[in-house]
Each structure stands twice: as C-alpha cells, then as structure tokens.
Amino acid sequence: MTTTGETPQAPATPTRTPTPAPPPSPLRLPAFRRFVLAQLVSAAGSAMAPLALAYAVIGAGGGAGALGLVLATNTVPTVVFLLVGGVLADRLSRSRLLFLGNLLAAAAQGVLALVVATGHAGTGAIAACGFVSGVAVAFTTPAAQGVVTQLVAPGQLQQANALLRLPTNAVKVVGPVTGGLVVAVGGPAWALGFDACTFAVAALLLLGLRLGAPATRTSALADLREGWSGFWSRTWLWTYTAAGTVLVAAWLAGYQLLGPVVTEQEYEGARTWGFIQGAFSLGLLAGAVVCLRWKPERLLTVAVAASSGLALPLAGLAFGLPLPWLLLSAVLAGITLDVAGVAWVTAFQQHVPDGELGRMSSFNQVGERLAIPLGYLVVALVSSAFADRSVLLVCTGIIVAATLLNLCVRDIHRIRRVE
C-alpha cells in the first residue's frame, strides 16, 4: 500500500537477450560440398595405396630394405618442397594448386599402376613414382589448410573441419580391408590404378572451385623470410610445432614400429594388431562426431591436452594389458587425436591471417614430418640394447612430458574461439 498518493508501478519485466541462432551448416554451401567430395574421393584411393605399394615392392622381388627406400623417396621430397608449397599457397590460387597437385599425383600413380601391371616395376621405377607423389603432397598440403577459410565463415570453421574429417575417417576404417581384397583378387596394379583414378576425379572437382589468389607485392624469397618471422613471433605456434615434433616421433616409433612387433611377441600377432588398428580408426570416426557437437572456448588448450591420449595404447602394450583394454585404449586414442586435430586446425585458421596460412602451415608440417624418420631412427638404435616394452614406456613418458611442457606455455591458453 502506498502513502504518497502515487499510482504504484508494476515491476519492470527484465528484457531477455535473444540467443543467437547457430550458424548454418557448411554443407549448405555448394563450394564446400564440392571440396568435401573431392577430399573423400581422394581419401578412398589413398586408403588402399600403402598396402598395394608394399605388395608391388614384394612382387618386384624387394624386401624390407627396398620398401624402406621407396617410403623414404616418398617422404623426403615432401619435407624438402613443403616450404616452397607454403609460399605458393600464399601467392597463387589455392584451388588451382590443389588441382595441379592432384593431377600430378594421378599421373604418378597411373604410371606406377602401368609398370606394375606390365611386370616392369623395379625398385627404382617404384621409388621414382613415389618421389613424384611426394612432391605433389608438398604442394597440396599447405594449400588445403587455407582453402577452408575461403569457403566458410569463421564461426563455421570447426564444424567444417569436423565434416571434412568425418568421411575420410570412415574411409580409413573400410579402405585397408577393401584394398586387401582388391590386391588379393586382382593384384596391386588394380588398387594403384584405382588410386590414380580417384586423384584425377578429385582434381576435376577442385578445378570447379575457382578460388582467387591472395594479393602479393613482394618476391617469393621475401615472402619466405616474412613467413619465418611471422612463425617465430607466434609463440603458441612454434612451441606447438616443437612439442608436436617430439610427440609425433614418440607416437610413430611406439605405435607404428613397435606395435606390430610387441603384438607378434606377446599376443596373437597380425590378428591382434588388426583389431587394434580397427579400434583406433573407429575412435577417429567417433572423434569427428564429437567435434560436430562440442565447441570448446580454449581451442589450443584442448588440442594440446587431447594429444596426450596417444600415450594410452603405448602404455597398454608396455604393461601387457589384456586385449579388451588395449582396444579401449586405441579407441580413446583415436577420439582424442581427432579432437586435437580439429581443435588445432580451427585455432590455426582463426588466428593466422589468410595471406599467411600457407607459409605457417608449411613450417608446422616440416616439423611434424621430420619426426617420421627421427622416431624410426632412434628406436632402431636403442631397440637392440633395451627391451621393446621398456622403449614403449619411454615413448609413453615422452608423449606425456611433451604435452605437460606445452601446457605450461601461457600463449597456448590465450588462443580462444572466434565466432
């Protein structure tokens, strides 16, 4: 009841800020759908290629040494030419670079399929085709990092990156099995020929994107120097790359190299290893699904922390855990790896200017690819002196230590989502 004679006023109704509508799915964009389809088609062939390549070398009379030489000639040119590919990705049309790179890969795999089918596939010829394929990867990898930012809005980047990984991860589950059947029934030439066809189809799809080229006013060498300065000035970027180099080396040495050896000695050999690889691939697929729903604020913190999940299957093998626990650890490792990958790529695309994406990507990729021969070389040197399980424990510790040290970098936690 009032005593002043004034009419009482009803309490004001608080105004509610409308919840912003979520951004539309990137799949509504025709250009993005074309890019996803190109990636899926290419991945379908690439999933069969490693097995077909191995049996092509074996069929030519080569052994482990010859296969190692072929793999090296595929990896080395990628590392050597990545920086060139990064500079070009910031100067030329990225869709045109992807078109030319896929066309080059199609030609290399087509020639390889032909020489294998005609019985003229010596180690030298296979290695030469692998060299050309490695060069193609060096030019397509940096360009692919920047294409997504030209196709979708910043708020759609994480969803776009997850959608790109979802079908390719699904292919990783069924691709090796299908490739094995193709090689068993028709021989490696058929699988290699299929891989060549998928690269050609992907090239035609990418040709239709017709993305513009970033504006440049300096020389290529000046671009490279400027790129290095930009890379070094971003503490979060070079520390993530350095930690990733160590982490990837430990992961590849423990999982790819010692995993088959330990399962052969302690479990049921190829059968157990096949189950573990299948569980890991299913984890990758599940991780992509998680990234479609979960959008963390601190993207880079999530990317670094999730990478530690790779230690789980290595620790399981080192301690001789039963198969169900090994399979669970492999699934969890796959989930965390894909979450880390999507979070990292999204943070990278949102916090690096479009005109620098190619060069920054190439510097990061050089670091991670150098880890491949590094990890294999170190394990080869120490495996004769120490038990395989002990080396696996060391690899586990390195992954955990690299993750914890990277989490101590303050700049890592400053990289937040941009909507």
Would you give an account of this structure?
The chain has about 425 residues and is mainly alpha-helical. It folds into 2 domains: about 25-155 and about 175-215, Growth Hormone, Chain: A (Up-down Bundle); about 225-419, MFS general substrate transporter like domains (Growth Hormone, Chain: A, Up-down Bundle), CATH 1.20.1250.20. Helix content is about 75%, strand content about 0%. The protein has 16 helices and no strands. Helix 3 runs antiparallel to helix 14 (about 355-380) and helix 9 runs antiparallel to helix 15. The longest helix is centred in the middle third of the chain and has 32 residues, at about 235-265. It is globular and about 55 Å long. Mean pLDDT is about 80; it is low at about 1-15.
What's the count of strands? 0
Report the uncertain regions. 1-17
CATH superfamily name of the largest domain?
Answer: MFS general substrate transporter like domains
Please summarize the sheet with the most strands.
none
CATH top level of the largest domain?
Mainly Alpha
Quickly count the domains: 2
User: In CATH terms, what is the fold-level topology of the largest domain?
Assistant: Growth Hormone, Chain: A
- The number of helical segments is 16
Main structural class = mainly alpha
Q: What is the CA-atom radius of gyration, in angstroms?
A: 24 Å
CATH architecture of the largest domain: Up-down Bundle
How much helical structure, as a percent, in the residues?
over 70%
Give the integer mean of the pLDDT values: 82
Distance between the termini: 50 Å
Q: Based on CA inertia axes, which overall geometry fits?
A: globular
Order of helices and strands: HHHHHHHHHHHHHHHH
Multimerization status: single chain
Assess the beta-strand content as a share of residues: under 5%
